[in-house]
Amino acid sequence: MNKKSRSKKATKPSPRRPKASKARTVKKPRKPAPQDNKSARKLAKKDLQHFKDKLLKEKKRVLEEMGEIQNENLKTSIADQSGENSRYSYHLGDTASLAYGREFSMGLAERQQKYLEQIDEALQRIEEGTYGTCLVTGEAIPVERLEEVPVAKYSVKGKEILEKRKQKGSS
Asked: Average pLDDT of 36-60?
């Protein structure tokens, strides 16, 4: 070896072991800070069952509403709704009013159908074990949000990210 390489070795600090004379404290692994809410952890089986029951109850309610809409408005003809037994034409205002009511009911039924699809998707996520996890950020969706919107796929942060992407795409 030459002189330069020896001098570098000499100046390089060597790893030291703690002296035996000093009392050495053993550090315990840090536990994560306790959370203020249940949202930072994965949902327990009890919670998943709660949301599954809630979603099934909501699905039953929506199906009953859709049945009522179909029976009241969509399955009956305009002649039946107007109460007219005559073969003559109806007053234009009556016909328009009945048509508006029927169209409104169809829009309501369509929204209910989309909501049913969201409920089914949420039930599927429960079965897959991904319910309560944001599809954008991968973070846990707060339990409070799931209580209010049990079909939620996104956390508030994830929803904001989606909105920003949508705005950039339309600009």
From this structure: 81
